[in-house]
Design a protein that fits this description.
With 420 residues, this protein is of the alpha/beta class. The protein is built from 12 helices and 12 strands. 29% of the residues lie in helices and 13% in strands. The strands form 2 sheets. Strands 1, 5, 6, 7, 8, 9, 10, 11 and 12 form a 9-stranded mixed β-sheet that branches. Strands 2-4-3 form a 3-stranded antiparallel β-sheet. The chain starts with a helix and ends in a 16-residue tail after the last helix.
């Protein structure tokens, strides 16, 4: 394994990509970081996609609608707040959380959670595939654009960040919102960055680089690059998902969703240059057996709430600089079906959590009367891009909304406070 210092520079290049076109670095070596950029004036953004179409009407219950809600859902409706564990958790006298979302009530009461009802995409499709693609592209109805809204955000940002951890999608496949020319990483586990147990091979690479870059070498740009490689290798070895201990007694769900949030929290604390983390949670397509306070929806909401509550607790000392936003491709029909479930609908609910939210319940509510519904579904009255645009401009310091959501002028609703 022989290579010159200048050959190393040629192999790695200005983009600092390792593992491309050189025998020194094998194909399994991840891209290394040389600069993280100045992150002092923006939040870390965590985007959670609830895949399958979450029933917003049972997650955030409009008990104030009375018969307009309960007559449509005679077996799966959530009862109005009465102090029992099986009734809705009152938020504002009209809306309440599903009982399974109880862990989020403390976050809500602390002013760190905003609940947005009637949110969604203006495109009327009820196809999972199309709705998810449109939402992740950030251009409803567009099937040609190949980039996602988060990637366009990273592309249009005024700052640079060469960290391999800049944008991470937890899971085996990269989320559509992250696709595009800016490098993003699909990561099932931080353990992936331990190079699949190839400790001996990693040690060989480190010894080879050490031979090229001794402490007596002149301090030049090439030596600085090598130092960046060494530092990142050390960082990767120090990060262990198995040894990580969440703070403040936080307990994450023992699921892929819980593990994804846990590892994003770990990366935030490690200060490795993370700007955006994406996590998915599926299982929301409740056509049958949805249940009310038990059943499939309650199970998903329990996992969802436990994960968010653990993330909030674990990052208590960091949440002033973190914003979490959740979304689902569409909601469910206002009326339950013959299988005690709900079918593909229109609007759902979004949650925004973090130190920068204004908190509380937000809705442009038109009601559940027949003439207020959109072909039998809750109408979309808040475009999901309004929520994302406000986060990007006020907390992530990117005002290039015309590039992130081309052709759309957002309506900023005061959901987020400006960073100081």
């Amino acid at each position: 394994m022989s290579i010159s210092r200048r050959g190393f520079l040629k192999a790695t290049g200005k983009a600092a990509v390792i593992g491309l076109g050189t025998h020194l670095f094998p194909s399994w070596m991840p891209r290394m970081a040389f600069a993280q950029g100045d992150r002092a004036n923006r939040d870390v953004l965590v985007a959670i996609f609830q895949r399958g179409g979450m029933d917003g009407l049972n997650a955030v219950v409009p008990f104030g609608e009375g018969a307009n809600y309960y007559d449509r859902r005679p077996t799966i409706g959530i009862s109005a707040p009465d102090g029992s564990d099986s009734s809705a958790i009152d938020l504002d006298g009209f809306f309440g959380l599903h009982p399974a979302l109880r862990p989020l009530k403390e976050v809500y009461d602390a002013g760190a959670l905003t609940v947005i009802h009637g949110a969604g995409s203006p495109d009327p499709t009820r196809s999972h595939f199309d709705a998810m693609e449109y939402m992740e592209r950030g251009i409803p109805g567009d099937k040609l654009t190949g980039t996602g809204w988060i990637n366009r955000h990273l592309q249009s940002a005024a700052w640079q960040n060469d960290s391999p951890f800049r944008a991470i999608g937890m899971g085996s496949m990269l989320q559509g919102s992250l696709r595009g020319p800016i490098s993003a990483l699909a990561l099932r586990s931080i353990t992936d960055f331990h190079l699949a147990g190839r400790t001996e091979q990693l040690s060989t690479i480190q010894r080879t680089l050490s031979g090229l870059y001794s402490v007596q070498s002149p301090v030049d740009a090439l030596t600085a690059q090598a130092s960046g490689v060494f530092g990142t290798m050390d960082l990767l070895e120090s990060l262990s998902a198995l040894e990580y201990q969440p703070s403040y007694g936080a307990v994450y769900p023992d699921t892929e969703f819980g593990m994804g949030l846990r590892q994003i929290a770990q990366l935030i604390k490690a200060d490795v240059g993370l700007e955006v983390g994406c996590v998915d949670i599926g299982g929301w397509d409740t056509h049958d057996g949805q249940g009310s306070t038990d059943g499939e929806l309650a199970n998903r909401l329990t996992e969802f709430a436990d994960g968010l509550a653990a993330f909030y607790s674990d990052l208590r000392d960091y949440m002033a600089n973190v914003t979490v936003v959740t979304m689902s491709e569409f909601g469910r029909t206002a009326s339950e079906n013959a299988s005690a479930g709900t079918d593909h609908g229109r609007a759902s609910a979004m949650f925004v959590m973090g130190g920068g939210v204004t908190g509380g319940m937000v809705a442009d509510w038109r009601g559940l009367a027949d003439d207020a519904l959109d072909e039998g579904d809750l109408a979309v009255t808040i475009d999901y891009r309004d929520v994302l645009a406000e986060i990007l401009t006020k907390r992530v310091s990117n005002s290039a909304i015309d590039q992130i959501f081309p052709g759309y002028t957002p309506n900023l609703r005061g959901l987020i406070r400006e960073r100081a």
